[in-house]
Amino acid sequence: MEKENTRPVDRQDAYGKITGKARYVDDLKYPGMLYVHTVRCPYPHARILNIDGSEALALPGVVKVLTAKDIIGRNHLPNDKPVLVAEVAKCAGDGVAAVVAETRALAVKAAKLVKVDYEELPAVFTPEEALAPGAQPVHGDSNCAITHKTVKGDIKIGFAKADVIIEREYSTQRAMHSALEPDGALVVPEADGITVYCPGKGPFNVKRAVAAACGLSENRVRLIQPAIGGAFGGKDCDINVIASRAAMAAMITGRPCKMTWSREEVLIEGSKRHPFKLKYKIGAKKDGRITAIEINGLADVGAYITKSKATIWRATVEATGPYNIEHVSTTITGAYTNNVYSDAVRGFGSPQVDFASESLMNELARELDMDPLEIRRINAYREGSVTATSQKLRSVNLIECLDKLEEVFPYHAKSCSTAPENSAPAQLENDAAVSGKISLRPGKVRGRGISCIFRGEANGAGVTTLDAAAVNMHIERDGSITVLTGIAEMGQGGSNIVLQMVSKVLGVSVENMKVSPLDTAYLPDSGATVGSRGTITTGNAAVVAAEDARKRIAEVIAEEWGGKPETLIFRDNNIFTEDGNKKISFQDAITICYTRIPGVFGYGWWSLPPVWWDFDKNCGDTYASFNYGACGAEVEIDLTSGKVDIIDLVAIHDVGKILNEPEVKGQIAGGASMALGFAMTEEVEIRKGQVKTLNFDGYLLPTTLDFNNFRPVPLEAKQPGTNPLGVKGIGESSTATLAPAVVNAIENALGVRIRNLPVDLEKVFAAIQEGERIGTIAGVTSSPMNHGARAETPDPQQYGKGGKA
Amino acid sequence: MEKENTRPVDRQDAYGKITGKARYVDDLKYPGMLYVHTVRCPYPHARILNIDGSEALALPGVVKVLTAKDIIGRNHLPNDKPVLVAEVAKCAGDGVAAVVAETRALAVKAAKLVKVDYEELPAVFTPEEALAPGAQPVHGDSNCAITHKTVKGDIKIGFAKADVIIEREYSTQRAMHSALEPDGALVVPEADGITVYCPGKGPFNVKRAVAAACGLSENRVRLIQPAIGGAFGGKDCDINVIASRAAMAAMITGRPCKMTWSREEVLIEGSKRHPFKLKYKIGAKKDGRITAIEINGLADVGAYITKSKATIWRATVEATGPYNIEHVSTTITGAYTNNVYSDAVRGFGSPQVDFASESLMNELARELDMDPLEIRRINAYREGSVTATSQKLRSVNLIECLDKLEEVFPYHAKSCSTAPENSAPAQLENDAAVSGKISLRPGKVRGRGISCIFRGEANGAGVTTLDAAAVNMHIERDGSITVLTGIAEMGQGGSNIVLQMVSKVLGVSVENMKVSPLDTAYLPDSGATVGSRGTITTGNAAVVAAEDARKRIAEVIAEEWGGKPETLIFRDNNIFTEDGNKKISFQDAITICYTRIPGVFGYGWWSLPPVWWDFDKNCGDTYASFNYGACGAEVEIDLTSGKVDIIDLVAIHDVGKILNEPEVKGQIAGGASMALGFAMTEEVEIRKGQVKTLNFDGYLLPTTLDFNNFRPVPLEAKQPGTNPLGVKGIGESSTATLAPAVVNAIENALGVRIRNLPVDLEKVFAAIQEGERIGTIAGVTSSPMNHGARAETPDPQQYGKGGKA
Q1: Chain A positions in Cβ-Cβ contact with residue B512 (cut-off 8 Å)
Q2: Do B468 and A599 touch (CB under 8 A)?
Q3: What is the pLDDT of residues B165-181, one digit of tens each?
Q4: Interface check B436 vs A, CB under 8 A
């Protein structure tokens, strides 16, 4: 990839977002538009006895009170959830009716007047409760929603060979996507079907869901995407629910109908990240070589399965971490509960197991008294390694990531201890902050931690064995270019990558191009913006499309000049002969084209190599390829309050090829920010099935102020990605590496390990107290004097040793 | 073409139009939308001295008064007309300012308050005045806007060989499109450009025009078509004007802006059909063989040239009629005048010259005392004939049309005389009315006339040498199909043809498909719905697209079954092996496809063979192919009032292949209806440059009640069209044949020829008086007694002989 293609390119979607001209779904208004608001079940498990909408309907301006009886098509969305509950609500927040009214305020008011009689049913709130004998089933006969396994070798043999075996348990919390734009949809009835305007990250999937719910053939539902205010794995199942409710309202009233959720509604009814409980047993030789690993996990699916199968499958196949282990047994079960449902959230499945496996690696290193980086290096996947699913890996750049980590992050003492004064100066920007000049403030301790991961790219065999996307383009007579892409721009910069690819092939400035808003009528189903598949699929499809157009142009110009079309060079908005003797501007070339051929356009379609999974034998080629990453975190902990500051964070990611350096760094930064919340602050509180977190005031998102120094390092390693562009998806692996590095750093600082996310103030404070108790840190919390005393002796030895000094 | 493909198919656009759910541009509303109204020059030629919008702006709710100074881009639309006049208005009705206001009523009111000071300039109102020495030029130095010629052989030699030479002059009037939906556009500003909603028949052209007017690159303007209420050659240049005015308003105000014209505005500012004056000189042998023809024509271009070049070019190359003539000279000049501008109207150029040439053929027949059908047959184009432009013809079915005419229309006596009692019974539907049972009513005479034509298909070399269109299709997972077509559905049924072609190739019911609304962002530029090119270009493109999809499907199913993909048969919503032993439903096949390939879609692009025209030598291959037609008309004339009733009308058209019989008959009927208005009732009156016809009360459109018996005969003749489908365009030739047949029938009844269209009541009445004077009919108008007397003797001999009996 030539250097010019990694240069920054203005984000085309930025202008509208900055000026306020971008129109989100809630900005869209149609004459005669109605507003739809959901009536929700307040109980975690309840049978609907009667719904009485008469009082609501008596309000002037209330048009309809819809219930499951009004559903025209199938009242069962893909992956389980009903449009509206027909008989039994399975969690608090389940939609049981929808009020359609002339204004939003009226719809909200009227929804409160809908009287629903319920019979409360017994409920289960944890996977353990759910799977206990005699538990009330949420669906069918059993609350075992899904169990995925991987088996490799024989763990008995593996553990028998081990010199050391440790067992640990970890847990992760219920988190959410936190897209600043809540979910919503506007549905407009047309003469021949309906048009859905909504920010679905998988527009083709939403189209199909709505078609089924409305009893329409798929070609009668068209989905057009307005601007999208983030998704982060969301804007998917919830959008299906919302769009289907709005669609039924539109079809029944014959008027445009809009439903947009408030933040509270997103919290109450919207999907969340799966909480996981993971038990790890690992055996290793004294030299650090892992001999066996046994993993048993339990995930809270909530009331509906949605994409739990895919999430838990990914967690299962990635649960070992990126290590060569001969004997593996992994079993992760998802259990139905009467909690709000869990679904894909950025990284789905990976952050949970990566937190556990990378915490475990440090625990094993401590047990073996080894350097945590060294133990990772010993076991790390290398080119040709075979995973727990018997997949032989290609394009493995983990060692390169670890090398880079060692190079740029001052971390090389044994057993989590770090000695910044000895560290090599960091090689990246913002060197100053990590140059080893430590000025520890009073009452603070510092620690450093690392982690590394592997992560499958794109959908993977657990979701679909086929994965493709389309990009088409039309070159106008004035040389400007309209690009159609099947991948939703959620803010991740995917559109820019597509434009860059066209730019690279045609040698035309990105400023000359425009991406047309995504419309399902445009292009073949190009899947969803999930699994970090966007750049890989549409980036390659864009190249195919641009090459198709280039061929058309080159043939005309070669005929004009004589010579072979394939030897022409497209560069700097010009076309040149190979020898540089002839030159024509791109625009002039297009003018000539239109005198010789009736159209200048290009069609592109690119599919990933097929993957496979054997659900009986629990093995397969899970993903077409994997990316790798390593993270180094330095934290400073206020021993008085337990507050953890991120002093330095290095996120190294194998991106295959860099297409747009600022964009890829932005993706890594965004992932890290989300991961920091996952690690330390974010948790949706739920008690007896009732969501207690109802807004961002109770759900703390990290901001840029929470990063004192952040160093994203996109790595172009030896082995490029296996697709033609050589690029790897980075949207999610960036979310998976940070949490264990931070927790390892906290352990490094305090000598106490926290195994349950998030590591919030309370947990850190408890760890400080524990550290004081066991003597890994000097007590400061009991006396302000100690605090002051430490402040006077900023001993570098404290660093990584806590109060041991 | 198999029979099943000619079966009637429900019109998909009909449902919306019948139920009122179809949304036309004037139905579209956006929040914050503004209305734009034009301020027009009342003088046919005037310099703008000052525009004062202050009084208008003082009205609350008036947002802007726009003038040419506000235009951001180029104030010169393609083909001449300005968005708003900057200095000199060239006709009454020219837009000089546009008022933007919160409501339409306010915009109209405010427009009247805009004070414009003019300096009136000398004006010219006829081509003769315009071309006279010393005339005030409308543009530049000369009012000669365009002259087209054809030259073949040497007319001196040709006339020298003639036994008979006659010279005649004909004229045609200013008519209009009469689409029931007036022109309009709504422009919505977007973050990255603008979206234009308008019923443009050439959406890609409008997009380009608006982009240039707004100073935007072409990819920043997207045009989406709402439902269209007819165009008939219009919805083109006027739409450019309207969309550009609305676009400048939208860009300047930043709000959605709509301009829709009233009928009066369409009449005052909208384009019209070119009035022609044509002088013919023709020489022939006694046996009827034509030896030479000389044609000189003059057309009123009006104030702006728009598509006059193309219209006059077509008229020039078709002016001889469909006859082998060795020596030809045709010259037609278009002159600028200060009248409202002329533009393409259905048939553009053909109806004018066909009226003249086919009137002339009857006059020549009378001169030679020959049967008018016989003289046509003697001279008619045959396979391999060479036109006046030196083009060798293929797929010539004129003789077949004449044979069919003779077979179904009782017309075979010499010299226009007909003897219905001897005629063979008609072979088509509604035989009764033409079965020879004539019951002539009192005071009436009857006559029969014929005509025949040839007409170039699609754009032709005078417009563009390249002509292509795209059709893409996506097959959804449920087997339903979304079809994208680049051709505007104006009501002509073009979308249905596309669906039928897909149906034919994939063997799937049309009900399973949907055509998505046209959007310029979808597809490559597929040109305009003009020149009867729709079915030829998109019909063939649809086949290419469907074959592309079929290949994908067949490969999967053949792999499933074993065997060769190309031998599979797609029929009746199933796929079969060649031997019929294996069968799968289309939907099941698609389900299988989606397990094997990631997408099922088809892309189609089809271009007509290139054509050429040498503007110096006045020769070339003008059109890729031609269609042929013949018409027979029987009229009954009330000798008291001059009222002409159409008793019987047979329109025979070489359609190459019939794809959809009801649709093609509908097209022929629509064309005939428009032609009847052209022949008899329609005329836009204009006096000293002022349009006097301001609504349909003064512009009489024929209705179904005006056809007592209409028999459209689409003919699948020996030589199919030269494109892969073998189909020929029929949208316009149907408009060209009727007028001369009716006028020849009137001449046949009265013995008096009318050479100026329309043959309205006054002209017919004058002809009756002339007939009485010269004795071709017995006088009835002078005395009611005569009327009664004739009524008592309904002598068949009267038939075609007027009062000679």
Answers
A1: 217, 219
A2: yes
A3: 999 999 999 999 999 99
A4: no
Give long-range contacts, CB 8 A cutoff, 24+ apart: B371-375: B371/B412, B371/B413, B371/B414, B371/B415, B372/B415, B372/B416, B372/B449, B372/B450, B372/B744, B373/B402, B373/B405, B373/B406, B373/B411, B373/B412, B373/B450, B374/B288, B374/B414, B375/B284, B375/B288
B285 has a chain A CB within 8 A of its CB? no
Flag whether the ipTM exceeds 0.90.
no
Edge-first strand order for the sheet with B290-302 is: B144-152, B327-336, B290-302, B276-284, B164-171
**Cα distance from N-terminal residue to C-terminal residue, chain A:** 51
pLDDT digits (tens, 9 = 90+) for A590-602: 999 999 998 999 9
Contact between B315 and B351 under an 8 Å Cβ cutoff? The reply is no
CB contacts < 8 A (A, B): 150
What is the rounded CA–CA span in Å between residue B528 and residue A263?
48
A474 lies within 8 A of chain B by CB: yes
CB A381 within 8 A of CB A323: yes
Phi, psi at B325, each rounded to 5°: -135, 125
Q: Which amino acid is at B761?
A: L
CA–CA gap between residue B166 and residue B186 (Å, rounded): 54
Could you give all domains of chain A from N- to C-terminal order, each with its CATH number?
33-121+183-260 (3.90.1170.50), 398-419+442-454+626-798 (3.30.365.10), 468-607 (3.30.365.10)
Q: Kindly list the residues from chain A whose CB atom is less than 8 angstroms away from the CB atom of residue B594.
A: 466
**Inter-chain touch B607–A600, beta carbons under 8 Å:** no
> What is the pLDDT confidence band of residue A496, given thresholds at 50, 70 and 90?
confident
In angstroms, the CA B506 to CA B513 distance is: 11
Helix (H) or strand (E) holding A184, with range, is strand A184-190
Residues 10-39 of A with CB under 8 A from B: 12-13, 15-17, 19, 21-23, 29-31
Calculate the average pLDDT of chain A.
Answer: 90
65-84 in chain B: CB under 8 A from chain A: none
Residues 6+ apart with CB under 8 A from A216: A73, A193, A194, A210
Test B218 with A15 for CB contact under 8 angstroms. Answer: no
Cβ separation A480–B12 shorter than 8 A: no
**Mean of the pLDDT values across residues A619-625?**
92
d(CA A14, CA A25): 17
In residues, how long is chain B?
805
Q: Which of A12, A208, A519 sits opposite B192 (nearest CB)?
A: A12
Q: Which residue of A has its CA nearest to B598?
A: A466
The C-alpha of B74 sits at a distance from chain A's nearest C-alpha, in angstroms, of 14
Across the interface, of B12, B190, B599, the residue whose CB is closest to A468 is B599
**Considering only alpha carbons, which residue of chain B is nearest residue A19?**
B191
Residue A751 has pLDDT above 90, yes or no: yes
What tokens does A333 get? Answer: 């079960």
**Identity of the residue numbered B175:** A
* pTM given for the model: 0.91
Nearest Cα to Cα of residue A302 among A344, A345, A271: A271
